[in-house]
Amino acid sequence: QITDTLSITAGLRYTEEEKEVHAETTLGVFHTGNTLFGNYTYTGVFQESNDPGLAAINAASFATWAHVFDEERSTDQLMPAMNLEWSPSEATMYYLSYAEGFKTGGFNAVDDQNPAFMPDGTPLRTNPGIGFEYDDETAKSIELGGKHTMMDGALNVNWNVFFSEYDDQQVSTFVGLGFVVANAASTEIKGLEVDIAFQATENLRLGGAFAYLDGNYGEFTGAECTAAQASAILALARAETGGGADGDHQTLDISSPVTSVDGCTAKFNATGSQSGLAQDLSDKKLTSAEYTGAITADYVRPIRDGMEWFASVDIQSTDDYLMTGDLDPIDSQKGFENINVRAGIRSENWGLVLYGRNVSDKLTASGAADVPLAAGSHFQYRNIGDVWGARLIYRF
């Protein structure tokens, strides 16, 4: 407590973390057994195989090599935090805060993770290739805000503006058989939040909230390409190599005259063969909605003997947002509003509530990704539609 109106709170946290991982893909063959079931014999004896021919077929068909990775990583982070508060009156308080934080790094667990390669193309089966490990995400945030009470306590207004900077932000993208995490070099997010609560009458309380979020990747050159971009690269490879739809010659190599289409660029391994795709999302906006808000109304009226009748409605609104780390415009959700209602009676130890959520039955999505093994197709995680229900509460 620096003065009667000025105080400071500070803290320091230190974290150490260690991780170990074992990741293995084994190539093998199924041999015919002698077990008889009805009129059929079946196969089911799996044996590991080091046959180079099998490895070549697997690599050419599925871009997968046998590997055994035993890796470990360690992290230590020092995270400070500080909050300065100034209260010039009982009805007003301003604050300024600074904090640092981190999200630990780790390893991607996808079964098509490939090893590193020698310049002659020999796979180093115990050495992970690029993308197996991702780094810690660190963040610094500064926030300025205020809390104000007015009209003899009937009106409360809270606000804050903030700026956050992320280094090596972890971005998760669905890549066909699982989610892969990659690090964006930097991300900057700034925004404004305001919420208001107003006791309009003895029985009616109104509220509102508004948030603005402006986020951009500072540098992110290794983002996953969209399905349309990957298709354009595939068409380029077929055009350059004369490959058809039969699956032959559908990749580029480092000597190809053109290796980039629509912002998507082919990546190459040490042998000069195509090993993946990446797009540059530097300075692009993040996936989150730019504007969100809510309006609420709560009405309470006493009945008798400590009982009261109540009703409330809230309208929640959100702006357009994207749902995938590759910023594919097809995986976007248009802005929408949700309406929730609630009504009932209650006393000191019991209550009956009737409620409706998303009463306008808006069908929206919270996530999306490409469909595995169906290039150009997409799926969504859908939010639930309208929900109606009742709840009886009794306190013993």
Brief rundown of the structure:
With 396 residues, the protein is mainly β.
What keywords describe this structure?
single chain; 396 residues; mainly beta; 2 helices; 25 strands; elongated
Oligomer: single chain
Q: Which radius of gyration do the C-alpha atoms yield?
A: 29 Å
With helices defined by DSSP (H or I, 4 residues minimum), what is the helix count?
A: 2
Helix content: under 10%
Overall pLDDT level: 86
**Which structural category fits the helices and strands?**
mainly beta
Residue windows where pLDDT falls under 50 for at least 5 positions: 35-43
Q: Which percent band covers the strand fraction? A: over 45%
Please summarize the sheet with the most strands. Answer: 12 strands, antiparallel
Distance between the termini: 43 Å
Total strand segments: 25
Shape: elongated
In N-to-C order, the SSE pattern is EEEHEEEEEEEEEEHEEEEEEEEEEEE
Strand order of the largest sheet: 1-4-5-10-11-12-13-17-18-21-22-25
Describe the structure.
This protein is mainly beta and 396 residues long. The protein has helices spanning 52-62, 227-241, and strands at residues 6-25, 28-37, 40-48, 67-89, 92-103, 106-107, 115-117, 123-128, 133-134, 137-150, 155-174, 179-199, 204-219, 260-261, 264-268, 274-279, 291-302, 308-318, 321-322, 332-333, 336-346, 350-357, 365-370, 378-382, 387-394. The strands form seven sheets. A twelve-stranded antiparallel sheet has the order 1-4-5-10-11-12-13-17-18-21-22-25, with no helix packed on it. It has a three-stranded antiparallel sheet with strand order 14-15-16. It has a two-stranded antiparallel ribbon with strand order 2-3. A hairpin with a 4-residue loop joins strand 11 (155-174) and strand 12 (179-199). The longest helix is centred in the middle third of the chain and has 15 residues, at 227-241.
